[in-house]
Input
Amino acid sequence: MLIDRRVPVLPRGVERYIVGGGGAAVLAIAGGDRISVIDREGRQPCEVIVADAQGRVDPGLIGGKAGGRADGLRDILAAGTEDARKVVAGLRRRNLDLGQGPGQGGAIRLFGGDSPAGAQADFTAQSDGILVVAAPGAAMAPDGQDTATEIEVRIARAAPLSGQSARLPEPLADAVLDFEVPKASARAYEVKEGEYIQIIDSFGRQCSDFHCFNARALQKGIERDLDNTVTRTLSGRGYPGPGLFAKVFDQDFQPLVELVQDTCGRHDNFALACTAKYYEDMGYPGHVNCSDNFSEALAPYGIERRRGWAALNLFYNTGIDHNNVLYLDEPWSRPGDFVLFRALTDLVCVSSACPDDIDAANGWDPTPVHIRTYPKQERFSRAVAYRMTPDSEPKMTKETAFHPRLSALTRNYAEYRGYWLPNRFNNEGPVAEYWACREKAVMLDLSPLRKFEVTGPDAETLLQRALTRDVRKLSEGQVVYSAMCYETGGMLDDGTLFRLGKDNFRWIGGDDYGGQWLRELAEKQGLRAWVRSSTDQLHNLSVQGPKSREILRQVIWTPPAHTSVDELGWFRFTIGRLGDFNGPPVILSRTGYTGELGYEVFCHPKDALAVFDAVNAAGKPHGLVPAGLEALDMLRIEAGLIFAGYEFCDQTDPFEAGIGFAVPLKSKTEDFVGRAALIRRKEHPQRTLVGLNIDDNEVAAHGDGVFVGRAQVGVVTSGTRSPILKKTIALARLDVTHAALGTAVEIGKLDGRMKRLPARVARFPHYDPDKTRVRA
Output
């Protein structure tokens, strides 16, 4: 197998496994394997249990010393989560019984205390066995910072597999079918209604065409099979994905399969599976091809041969360029990436391992794929993979702790940074949700916001050097909004910083990478500070609208020494409990993303349903309703609140993003990352964020050009129709020479020139520019 050194890849024979905070993993080891266990973020306890092939616990198998019972692992397995069930299944498949007390006193204990980020323990396996690694942690109180974080395990194999042998990912459950499709071939197989089909790219960058037939129709001599055109038409997407648009249909508009999980996210649903004619036209007559392989594999089922087969071309990387040309490039898939389907009727399926070696379709090196099917009684959550950085391990989409309540009110969900969030709710819709926020109150699930606990004697110094705001002026109980920039002045993220104590902070932003960047900065500058993720330990329900204070004063109890709900000022937080002295702990901050009076309630996920129920019950008499992302977008655009990927990116500085107020260059004289570049940019501005009033009912979209005559002078970042202002508005980044209040511009639609929407630069933000409502 060829290895492309230009893309992120581990050395040959090295495998990486990530054990999530509060989770565990089961791994097979062999004699001579070198094992590294790494505390990625610092201060994370780790329990390691080693057993031989007969299931006998023996820490000496890797040269370790027992440190006691693995009580943390016991608690993890007892939790009964989907991840815990996978670990239990992995133990069962290996006939490993850890008994009533996991490890029976034979656990190796690592890290914890003041272990630094990147702390590492190395071992060598003396013989074959099983490695169980746990990253235990108790529930973190909202005002505590004892979060549970990831442990990384790297195994350098003493005997790496040969080029055409893959170390496959753990089965998702006990498989019904489990077989390889050799490279340049195809295999047909039968699946019953309700069963699951997992198609695995064993080595990465390998395409696999998938087709299926309604087995019941085949028994009657009728071929009803996957139809790409019908699927694209009914879903409105280039190819299906987990969620609302997951189904694949036949010619009669009947669903055959639905896509449940996808760790790659890049496929093709336009072209045929490769054909003999394609290779003949390229000068390779007689080349093996997927269409002929399909025909041969399906022949035993009496299915007529076809010169070219339509297929869902999994892992195939195609697109249509601006000249309307279909192009292809190397697949995005990594070793072990997979898609998981659920059969919606009895099926005859066929999967190929594409033989294309004359272009980049398979990374120039065809390899096998692997098929597993699972019984219908298994339950797998809908998920796509999210990677923080190109070389990160994939993390599957999660449900927030509020999902059980919200999912009873809507099925319209979108994936947002690794979590499912509601777009809109039944019987209300975005306009009604919007008006509820402007006139009464709404609650929004904003749990995907990334939280990081920044602690240690140098925590203040680290944040002072990392953020544009003056952190030294922040008192305990206060919150400040800030930008985080690269040396170029381009924005990495924006967010809010909470000061919990002298050396205790919490950074809440939008991007996972912010935490990694802070850790790297601390290491580079030799600072004694820990930056530890707490996103999974701290979920938040945002309560926004003019009635929000009245609602929360009925719900949140605060001790006498802390600020009450009525006393809480803008950008301040208080520590309290739900209901009374005995209720679950919460943190309440007077922050939001709507331009209205509003608060955010932070709690541990185990208390989320209690928080939701209490807020919902107290809010009903005040007209409280849940709101989704569509309503939130309308609200934040009116209020001039920026969104990553729209109003800013790493090419945009805070002045160009409309948040120059968050860069106090005169009063903050200490250096911080990007300060020198921001001084230059402020002295010589080129672009600025403005509001536009559009004299048309058509909504401007992100990316639409803004023109003065033939010259493009800017770009629309966000647009909406404003119910309260009774006009169509937009946020746009314009050249400063055309950004003066009242300047007439045009927004280009279609090709940018054929259709223009007249607009004028308006006061920014459009709604409540003096912030009287949020300060109320």
In short: The mean pLDDT is 93. The first helix runs from residue 71 to 78.
